[in-house]
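Bit of a strange request maybe. I'm writing a small parser for structure token strings and I need a real example to test against, not something I typed by hand. Could someone generate the tokens for this chain?
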Amino acid sequence: MKIKYFISFAVTLVLILFSSCEKWLDINEDPNNPTSVPVSQLFSTVEVDLAGSMGASIGGLSGYTSAMVHQMFQRGGTHQFYDLQGADFEVLTPWNIMYLRLLTDVREIIAQGTADEGNEDWHYVGIVQIIKAYVFSTLVDIWGDVPFEEANQGAALRMPAYDNGQSIYPQLFQLIDEGITNLEKTSNLSPGTDDIIYQGDLDKWIKFAKTLKLKLYNQIRLVQDVSAEVNTLLADESQLIGPGDDFEFPYGAALAPMNRNPAYQQEYTPGGSYFYINPYFYEILTGQNTFFPVEGNPYLGTVDPRVPYYFYNQLAPGQEAENPVAYRDGDFVSIYMFSFNIDPNEGFDQASSQTVAGLYPVGGRYDDGNGGIANFNGAGDTPQRMLTYFSRLYTQAELALVGITSQDDAQLLTDAIQASFDKVNEVASMAGAPAIDQSDIDNYISMVMALYNSANDDGKLRHIMTQKWIASFGYGIDAYNDYRRTGYPLLHDGNTDNLTITVRTREYPLSYPWKTDDLSVNQNAPAQKNITTFNVFWDVN
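Reply from user aminoacidic:
Good idea to test on real output. This should exercise your parser:
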């Protein structure tokens, strides 16, 4: 309860900060102002902004990246046809949150925390250095070249150059190591309840930092030999994220003040959900294949036990939808991707009929099969996942499969799938929903592993990445990175499917466009990119 009350305070504090930043938080104008906000308060806002910028609401990076990996998408051309522009909300919002607020506050915490020699706040400094590395790795992974060396330097550098992503990554590893070193020092002040994520547990921050390094080494494995670094990290796996150590931002269930997951607030408001569940993702989980002219679902005939935790059907069995539907399977209602202004039923309002994101990704309702309108009738307190134990295991399975380690890839995949189900059950337990029976989990894992063990290496990679994609629902960033790096999971193509009402009009976006306004005022900025050809440095496929 104390955590939830503190989150309410932190969210309220952030709103105050946002509304009054010009008055007393203009650290670009006067970074040495002695009346600046204490590091403990700034630190809480950093964590709130971190979760918001990475999250699954429309202002977070997991919103649009979830569309690009065909999990959830919005009706309209931007989401349906990969038509992302530099002035779009999905670009402006996370970019602004990270650069104008989050990284600026990080800079101020480091400045304040190291200003008084002999009384440094090393623990705050170390944590935000690790967060800074995480944020910049995400910026590079999404945009490619971004301001780094000259970013957030105040009034003296209002026109920062855009650094090459490949030159930024090595500095991030150094930044993480510096952060770990600072966490091991004696500190004047240390975080406690102001640390919303880990409640001041420095050991967990170190585990996150080392697991982040493992993730980043895997990200660049196609362009750099990372064997030595990876095997050093894996020499003592107790130093990595384990069960109970997930890097995630907790939310509450309060309405006044509202402290629920922003994605829940977006999806469960009166008037209808913002996102539609992609029928292709739904069919992968329900063992169907109506999209591909050839086999596209490796798990045909198997219904994933996580379905009622992932999706909530507003329609009761046999209930008529409010309008003609584009896609319906039982009580599941959605629209097709690549069908905007093509499918005659795609534009009908389905606010009270469409299937919405359920308990696991956003804190919505567990689907008990009885239906019901999704208007603020879930808890909304599912955390925003960012780096988890199960994702660490999938990463290790990939590294083992490709020969970077000598670990058992099949065992790691088995463990990763189990950990994925354990995470769903953890969320279910918080909400008072029934747990997935272990016998159902065992049957599912046996099915996947039988297919895995009979596949060649490319087929095995497909299973690892497909399972990781399924488990990632609610955090689209990693799945977007994985798809560009490996080509898996296979995605729906509106130009080669079995459907007559879907047409893909653009090629796949290999990166986000840069923020248009910044390009127009910054003489050191590059010309706008073609997002279908501008790939991130580690994307060599």
